[in-house]
Amino acid sequence: MALKTGVQYEESLRKLNLKVYLLGELVSNPVDHPMIRPSMNSVKMTYSLAEDPQHEDLMTATSHLTGQKVNRFCHLHQSTEDLIKKVKMQRLLGQKTGSCFQRCVGMDAINAVDSTTFEMDEKLGTEYHKRFLAFLNMMQEQDLTVDGAMTDPKGDRGLAPSKQADPDMYVHVVEKKPDGIVVRGAKAHQTGAINSHWILVMPTISMQKDDADYAVCFAAPADAEGIFYIYGRQSCDTRKLEGGEIDVGNKQFGGHEALMVFEDVFIPWENVFMCGEHEFSGMLVERFAGYHRQSYGGCKVGVGDVLIGAAALAADYNGAAKASHIKDKLIEMVHLNETLYACGIACSSEGRRTPSGTYLINLLLANVCKQNVTRLPYEIARLAEDIAGGLMVTMASERDLKHPEVGKVIEKYFQGVASVPTEHRMRILRLIENMTLGTAAVGYRTESMHGAGSPQAQRIMISRQGNLEQKKNLAKELAGIR
Amino acid sequence: MALKTGVQYEESLRKLNLKVYLLGELVSNPVDHPMIRPSMNSVKMTYSLAEDPQHEDLMTATSHLTGQKVNRFCHLHQSTEDLIKKVKMQRLLGQKTGSCFQRCVGMDAINAVDSTTFEMDEKLGTEYHKRFLAFLNMMQEQDLTVDGAMTDPKGDRGLAPSKQADPDMYVHVVEKKPDGIVVRGAKAHQTGAINSHWILVMPTISMQKDDADYAVCFAAPADAEGIFYIYGRQSCDTRKLEGGEIDVGNKQFGGHEALMVFEDVFIPWENVFMCGEHEFSGMLVERFAGYHRQSYGGCKVGVGDVLIGAAALAADYNGAAKASHIKDKLIEMVHLNETLYACGIACSSEGRRTPSGTYLINLLLANVCKQNVTRLPYEIARLAEDIAGGLMVTMASERDLKHPEVGKVIEKYFQGVASVPTEHRMRILRLIENMTLGTAAVGYRTESMHGAGSPQAQRIMISRQGNLEQKKNLAKELAGIR
Amino acid sequence: MALKTGVQYEESLRKLNLKVYLLGELVSNPVDHPMIRPSMNSVKMTYSLAEDPQHEDLMTATSHLTGQKVNRFCHLHQSTEDLIKKVKMQRLLGQKTGSCFQRCVGMDAINAVDSTTFEMDEKLGTEYHKRFLAFLNMMQEQDLTVDGAMTDPKGDRGLAPSKQADPDMYVHVVEKKPDGIVVRGAKAHQTGAINSHWILVMPTISMQKDDADYAVCFAAPADAEGIFYIYGRQSCDTRKLEGGEIDVGNKQFGGHEALMVFEDVFIPWENVFMCGEHEFSGMLVERFAGYHRQSYGGCKVGVGDVLIGAAALAADYNGAAKASHIKDKLIEMVHLNETLYACGIACSSEGRRTPSGTYLINLLLANVCKQNVTRLPYEIARLAEDIAGGLMVTMASERDLKHPEVGKVIEKYFQGVASVPTEHRMRILRLIENMTLGTAAVGYRTESMHGAGSPQAQRIMISRQGNLEQKKNLAKELAGIR
Amino acid sequence: MALKTGVQYEESLRKLNLKVYLLGELVSNPVDHPMIRPSMNSVKMTYSLAEDPQHEDLMTATSHLTGQKVNRFCHLHQSTEDLIKKVKMQRLLGQKTGSCFQRCVGMDAINAVDSTTFEMDEKLGTEYHKRFLAFLNMMQEQDLTVDGAMTDPKGDRGLAPSKQADPDMYVHVVEKKPDGIVVRGAKAHQTGAINSHWILVMPTISMQKDDADYAVCFAAPADAEGIFYIYGRQSCDTRKLEGGEIDVGNKQFGGHEALMVFEDVFIPWENVFMCGEHEFSGMLVERFAGYHRQSYGGCKVGVGDVLIGAAALAADYNGAAKASHIKDKLIEMVHLNETLYACGIACSSEGRRTPSGTYLINLLLANVCKQNVTRLPYEIARLAEDIAGGLMVTMASERDLKHPEVGKVIEKYFQGVASVPTEHRMRILRLIENMTLGTAAVGYRTESMHGAGSPQAQRIMISRQGNLEQKKNLAKELAGIR
């Protein structure tokens, strides 16, 4: 079997023995917990759509290891066409879930680890790539969701890993044994961690010699001994506990992040892909970040499509769709959203083959893509709030709507154009609220800002890749300076 | 007595007999309801600060009716200095509450109704102004909080009030009796309605002849027979029910909006200030909106001060305060915030006396002020999210922090610079979350957009006031076109 | 011969008998006129670079007609790879000239006319495509520069062509003869017209039935009987007449536009490619505009590279290169410039085959590309002016620098860092002035705005292509609206 | 006499014996030189308007020294009302000239020197203030135009004045004599220098002890022995030499900047207002810059009014005035322009009395004002170029229009709406060109950027004045951090 169905994916999660804390309690069954479930549904969509022949071309690929059909999330990009299809798949999933579907981190991690271990082995004579391919083979074979885990808590941002007051602020090797290593620390902001079968841990910054113990990359089952999770709160998260279906905005789908803690976890050597080779930590970070910055040119665009559609519906329901300023704002939203898409496509189209055969995106354009993602979705959201109108944040609750007496008043006074049921108007406004202020805003706004690296991280990369010296020479030539 | 203490204000609210629905239930004691209470605290601050000699100059004024000291919220502006002090008072309250303190709508309403009724009486020989002054005298004497109620539900935005499928989509007179009128309809988005003693209802648009029944302005006790309220949901509203103090972000203060419904409410003539004089509805709307657009150049600036301070603290706690890009972002936030303040001050300084003696702001600059408020707070919020870092939306809950075991893990891994307790960092991030995504974001973002009129409403006013013909003449003169 | 050398191109121009008015005089020898010459040099660069093996891959292509190597400017795009190479070629030429190199309009015109005539013939049974291929064959064989002429003077923008006070405000057929047609009218803003061998005239808007006489597409030699040109003034144009080399900023290169007038010009049928088929005018306009909007994602990016390099040099020469705000502004300039490039690449990569075999760009993304071009170069220019410093616009002239006494004072006081000659600093500031205020600003700013259609034209296309209905369905699905 | 007429001003300039180099030649009669004359006309307007009773209130003031009526440009601000009137006067002059009218630098200089010398004398026991008042008395009595000269050439921006390779990169004292001092150096970018009677020199940065010789402030006649000027080139400057009246855009008015060189100039002690008191150089710079940053909230707004009017006319003449996107762009232009005005008014209204009695603007808001001026005029200009259309930069010359044959063709094809003469359309487009690309663009764009200090200078001041610590305390209070 190389492709799980959605149902099989859900069942496979039930078999895991994850230790998850949420709102101060240990969760016995994460899959069915109403706050977690919508995020699981989003990941599940990455399996379900792959079953659909209509989406086969985007959702699946042919494994370069086995020649078998695999889910594209388990695939190493073999061409720029693969890179482009990745972005299109992400846009599709953003459209279908209106949320973060979480599985990208694993895909981006395997592509980065592949080429980095290959080049590290070439240079240092290590044999990490072989181990990695064995892991990849299992991942493809079992169609696993893998959490690519990079971001450490970091403590004081002004200090290196080994200089922190607490040595555990970055994941590090605390013991090397004949059969493996023992690691300690934590990974923060772990997207989709609770919905993953395995985790693939990478260092979070370019390490120096003193930080060699922190230059560690490995894979582990998500429920390995010593690993546990603390679920992150999101804006409006407990609306999912209220049992209704309107006020949540997007009843079926969502995303999540968690803190993942390693309390002296044992990792056998076969699952270790870097251990002390600090000089390759930078390459790994740069490539993972590069792939992930490309990703945002797909997924956030798909979510943006939903938000634009919702705003257009709100205008229809308000009876304002023909106003020229409304039409112009919708055009602007499309323009900004497609600008992000253009960046996602361009960094893919301009990708290049690395020595391992895996294709890497154009790093400059991928960073430009993400930098735009830290800005344009905020403006798209602002315009959506403009079109939606104030009712979005002053509207009565679903329970009021269902109330035998009050409900009639709400039906009457929250009516927009006469032909549209008040409930539809409420639903669409709650969806916009969800995406601009609520649980999905976490993904569409704050994670557009910080996911795959905060804005300044992209600026540093743009500075490095921008080739100012060549540009100076062009100017000198034309100015007649010799 | 012309000044209530904060305590007296709270007690006076308890004596009201308001009918309030919230989350599908009738609330027995709004003052102490944990979801409503913080908004009451914000209004209470307008009384408490007036008791403080340090703030007396801003918070109080001398009544032009009685010569007594009154709360500035009950005062008619007698000079441009008064207009400027209004803005400064609002900035102060924004700083103290980090929220919408709600009482401005009443202040802006009395100032607009005063000059409009005066000029209407002059032109039409009516006697509304005298009635209005009697109401104002009571308001000042009892230091009342008044809800200036303007916005109707509006139904289909493309249709006039009298052309709506349901005639009640705008408040209107359904019967005229010898002793008063009977009104029906609703007012939406009513800021602070549940914390008000009286309501002062105004028409929401410039009416034509066919809509004369909708051109109605009157005052009524907030608990008059036939009036009831449906409380509006806010992002993260139920965190206030959780009993903690960190996750709410701002435990003490908040704002609220509600739908206010009039089921055939009787208004005695002495409280009616317009009834059918549709040709003056536009003036009343324009002036109320003008004053309220000025207000945003004060209150939102004060809230912005808090958000800038919170972002600066987050940078300190992250150990990132010295990074040049962080410093630059804080400068940008200050710059944008002070730009709004400059607009608030300028439209006040350029105010002018109306025939009744009450001062009106400069309408062009007040609209420019509000138009900027529909944009700049969004950018300030974006920059705050940038500086805060992703932890703001992935952080574990207060309950986790209080958990005997998990709490230690959180203390350890959410630590920033070693000298700052993790709890402090969590508190400041939750405050930023509150202001950018949570309950206060409703006030800082969406209401910055739509409060006092949506962006397009300001653009129409800017178009009207911009005097393009004079500008064309300037250009012709210089271009030598005669 | 299928490739002219630069020298051959220049010689071929001399053989033309163009009638050109410039500053009120008939120009006897346009090629050597100091105001025109730099624009000729820019076009010449499209020939010279094609001679250079280093640039052969971008600058040339294999004709699908003859299999011969032709200049890419004469080529019909046979793949998305061709579309991408087009953009890269344009960026290269922008870098080499810092100017508009003018030859793109012809390339974009032949690609649009090819597919449109093919589809028109298929539908209407006409035989325009065959004629067009004959023309194309000659163009490739002789390596011609062709002016793709679209924009009519348009008169009153509110009126259709046939409703104008003067019927000649759009080019139209005034007579049909057995052997050809007679046309009258003018084409405005004709980029590179004086440097072209032939012109390829297209209608400028989608025509209705009443405007059938205006739906005309044809080719003519640039010096055909009845055609003449009036040269357009540019900011700082006469600096080129001063004889110096510093104050012009970019001594060697430039661009130009001209009004091209048709005084009853006879066109034999073999050169007519549309005559009355108004229903295909829209397609032709849309495709030409689409190709040309793509073009700007290449050429303006190349010019932007020069401007960024010049700003970076100015910072070096001022001794300010290490200031963090300077570094950040350069990063922002690169970011914005690469965003344009990403759009140029993306609309190419997402191109598609048309029935004639010629590839068309993705129209939505090409319009998004151009829309960004109407904004981002302005911000890049603003940042360049920021970095350059005020000296750029207050600096003494080249003649002062060359003055025996004053020159020493200028050397002394306009010195920046001690190691850089004052003249170098002056040269680089004049280059920035040239690109932000001078002759090249016409290309980098105003033509970024209006070339290939004014901003609103792109917004209309984005509106048409944005597929709002599909987006609404996505939102309905997630909001649970059925 | 305390008020000169415009004619008297012009005559008084003729009596000066200025040494001015322009385009490599010594100018014998600057007043009548066609490149300089328009800038003289702009300054002359500050005299002519003061003669007009309609503008008396803004243009004149009552001297606090003599009680006589003086031109406001010679006045020390005695109240916030004076500060506001200053801004309004500047807007008026910007409207009347569409240019920089140059006289502000002197007004801003005297106000800064007044309060600084007063406070310096108080602290150090010096007697500069008395000397300064004598100078001021003469200035008011003779209604002089004074060039407030601050900016030095600065050489390497990374080095202090005394550390420069050439010690003359900042103006400094080279000799102290019993009767006065000898100074050497230059002042760059001197606005209106050639149109001034006297110059008032100030240091350009906060000096340290080592730079004490550079902490020098003094007044001198503009034609003092040893002073000479080198005129700065502007974009399109030589169009003023062509003799026409259309292509210059704004025939009558302009501005200029020059390099002012001091070759060992002797200054008697009575005209020395600071000499070595380096600890007061910072205050003087900060206050002059503050006043001058306020100024831009007036003058640039007036110029903006002209540009908006010109764009509106262009739309009328193009037949596009009713298009909703055109109307919206004009609204945006007004909005941005009035935002600048609001900042100018606000920093004035919030001014405060200094110990000398002279009123100082609010420094934070003045810096916010100028920071906005470095941005918003660029967007206003961009929108003007959008509305104007491409013809602005491709239009034939005035000589072509006057040509007996070609002129008819131009009349025909450059016609917009039929009711407007083509020449009018050409005039208005040339005016827009003048303001966005030509001589006036130097003032409206680049000097908006760098005049009164480059953008980063304002950011440093905003950082200092922004009071982050107070803001942090507000946030701590609300977050419950003690």
UniProtKB/TrEMBL annotation, chains A, B, C, D:
Database matches in Pfam families: HpaB, HpaB_N
Matches recorded under InterPro entries: Acyl-CoA_Oxase/DH_mid-dom_sf, AcylCo_DH-like_C, AcylCoA_DH/oxidase_NM_dom_sf, HpaB/PvcC/4-BUDH, HpaB/PvcC/4-BUDH_C, HpaB/PvcC/4-BUDH_N
Binding site for FAD: 191
Residues in HpaB/PvcC/4-BUDH C-terminal domain copies: 282-480
Keyword check for Oxidoreductase: yes
Record keywords: FAD, Flavoprotein, Isomerase, Lyase, Oxidoreductase
Domain HpaB/PvcC/4-BUDH N-terminal: 5-274
Molecular function as annotated in GO: lyase activity; oxidoreductase activity, acting on the CH-CH group of donors; vinylacetyl-CoA delta-isomerase activity
Annotated EC: 4.2.1.-, 5.3.3.3
The protein's name: Aromatic ring hydroxylase
Biological source species: Desulfomonile tiedjei (strain ATCC 49306 / DSM 6799 / DCB-1)
